[in-house]
Amino acid sequence: MAAIIELQGISKHYSRTIIGVDNVSLSVEDGEFVTLLGPSGCGKSTLLRMIGGFEAPTHGKIRLAGQDVTHVPPYRRDVNMVFQDYALFPHMTVGENIAYGLKMLGKGRDEARRMAAEALEMVGLADKIDQRPMQLSGGQRQRVALARAIVRRPKVLLLDEPLSALDARLRDQMRIEMKHLHEKVGITFIMVTHDQEEALTMSDRVVVMEKGRVAQDGRPQDLYDHPASPYVANFIGTTNFLAARRSGAGVATAAGPLQVEEAVDMPDGAEVTVGFRPEKTRILAPGETAANALPARIAEVIYYGLGLRITVELADGAQVHVDTLLPDTLARSDVPRPGTPVTIAVEPHNIFVFPGKVVV
Ligand code: ADP
Ligand code: MG
Asked: GO molecular function of the protein, one example (predicted)?
């Protein structure tokens, strides 16, 4: 597959001290759905605006379909942007909103309307062409904004937090719809979000950003299963962290030794941090034995419908979360009570090892 977008060492320095984006290199393939993910202020929107041409990079080069567009204005890039607030014209009909940019491209009235109708069909709003934005729900307005963005079939669609204005239920539904829209139109989507679940469920590839830089770039499942740093392990999903030292073939924590499978390229005795997911952590049945068993005591049990989040305390006082699905036969007496001694275990291949002592 060919790269549709190539960023080479892109930086944006707003001032000597404010660095929005710091030396980002990234290649996006034609037709991919890539998401820029990270907390507020990490440079996602700045990077997206530079791809769209709304902001000029301080350093670096941007190529679109092989052409250097670093200094090309937005309207001459084959890229379109969907803004967070949709920016629809209230005095125009839905059809007019979508056809608006087409007249400037020299399309006649009829052709523009036909193209608008086609784009509306794509987002499932064919019957709303003559209504005004005010007559639509939030989700429908969002779809109109999407239709307007794809009507010219740009090579790349840029979406900055496109679902953030919608309520939770609608957001879930729009995630799926946008994924389907991406499949239907076949153009490259680059989306920005701070919501890890949104990023994981919608994208082919996720670029996790940290302070203007790329922390990790990969397929959702690779990021989840092999986070490159505690930052990523903590931002995507939940992770238990324990301070440890390299020891023999594994690590030694204050609560006991753990075998690990990850290659650890550090000398014996070196400070490391181990991480493991709550849903990969088990509470052993009475009498059961397993690798990496650590004695613990139940500290808190929280019911969240689908299952339980059990917080346990290890011998040294460190707290560890254990997520477990509720068997439908679970008797009330089987729910562990605070204070109960238990043994937890994590399989060696489910343990991440990071160099150094990490405060997350
Ligand atoms: P995100 O979209 O990830 O929340 P932004 O790209 O908006 O982050 O911002 C990245 C950093 O650049 C932040 O520290 C922000 O304050 C700063 N920044 C963004 N836009 C400007 C601007 N126009 N002028 C000065 N600083 C800016
Ligand atoms: Mg932003």
From this structure: ATP binding
